[in-house]
């Protein structure tokens, strides 16, 4: 299974948790591609992982936005192990590219990813739970392939048109309540 991690360099993005989870897996039927600038506290753990994982790990570094979608489409799942997120653009972009998201159950990720429908959720700051989610995905490649359609479909709920319609409806509802004198 071709796994993808896309994030800028920041400790809360959870790269260290992902590398720890992959290290604990007693299997080698995966590869990981990392897209995004890596620096700071993640750099040493990434260097150790590169030595440990060898050719199963590819680090592209920062890439032009136009190329990220192409990279996403060449993978089987997007891993989003963030420790916290308000709204995760990478998760939404992955879903739009048809990638099931193996993501942490926080913030906007929890809203976008429906467990075993368009991805797999796991609790934050828990490399063991992430390893279990990855193992499940590796054990069920056919289910992960079927999730691709669910991923694309769920991303449509976040299109500009859908968000505009929801905002319009909410504003009209608020105006209607105020005209009637409702709180």
Q: Could you explain how this protein is built, in words?
A:
The chain is α/β, with parallel strands linked by helices. The chain has a single domain, classed as Glycogen Phosphorylase B (Rossmann fold, 3-Layer(aba) Sandwich). Helix content is 51%, strand content 15%. It contains eight helices and six strands. The chain has helices spanning 15-24, 42-53, 65-73, 89-96, 107-112, 127-139, 141-155, 160-180, and strands at residues 2-6, 31-35, 57-61, 77-80, 101-104, 119-122. The protein has a six-stranded parallel β-sheet, sandwiched between helices. α4 (89-96) links the parallel β4 (77-80) and β5. α1 crosses α6. It is elongated.
Strand order of the largest sheet: 3-2-1-4-5-6
Radius of gyration: 18 Å
Q: What is the number of helices?
A: 8
Distance linking N and C termini:
52 Å
What would CATH call the homologous superfamily?
Glycogen Phosphorylase B
Percent in helix:
40-55%
Q: What name does CATH use for the topology? A: Rossmann fold
Shape: elongated
Task: Tell me the name of the CATH class.
Answer: Alpha Beta
Low-confidence stretches: none
Q: Which class of secondary structure composition applies to the elements?
A: alpha/beta
Question: From N to C, what is the helix and strand string?
Answer: EHEHEHEHEHEHHH
Largest sheet: 6 strands, parallel
The assigned CATH architecture is: 3-Layer(aba) Sandwich
- In total, how many domains does the architecture comprise? 1
- Strand fraction equals 5-15%
What's the count of strands? 6
**Mean pLDDT across all amino acids:** 92
């Amino acid at each position: 299974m071709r796994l993808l991690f896309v994030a800028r360099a920041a400790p809360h993005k959870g790269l260290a948790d992902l590398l720890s989870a992959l290290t604990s897996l007693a299997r080698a039927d995966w590869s990981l591609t990392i897209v995004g600038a890596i620096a700071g506290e993640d750099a040493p753990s990434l260097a150790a992982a590169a030595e440990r994982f060898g050719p199963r790990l590819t680090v592209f570094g920062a890439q032009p936005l136009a190329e990220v979608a192409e990279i996403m489409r060449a993978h089987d799942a997007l891993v989003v192990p963030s420790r916290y997120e308000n709204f995760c653009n990478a998760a939404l972009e992955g879903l739009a590219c048809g990638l099931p998201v193996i993501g942490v159950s926080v913030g906007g990720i929890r809203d976008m990813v429906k467990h075993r429908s368009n991805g797999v959720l796991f609790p934050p700051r828990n490399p063991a739970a992430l390893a279990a989610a990855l193992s499940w995905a590796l054990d069920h490649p056919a289910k992960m392939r079927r999730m691709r359609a669910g991923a694309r479909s769920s991303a449509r709920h976040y299109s500009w048109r859908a968000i505009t319609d929801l905002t319009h409806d909410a504003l009209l509802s608020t105006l209607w309540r105020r005209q009637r004198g409702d709180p």
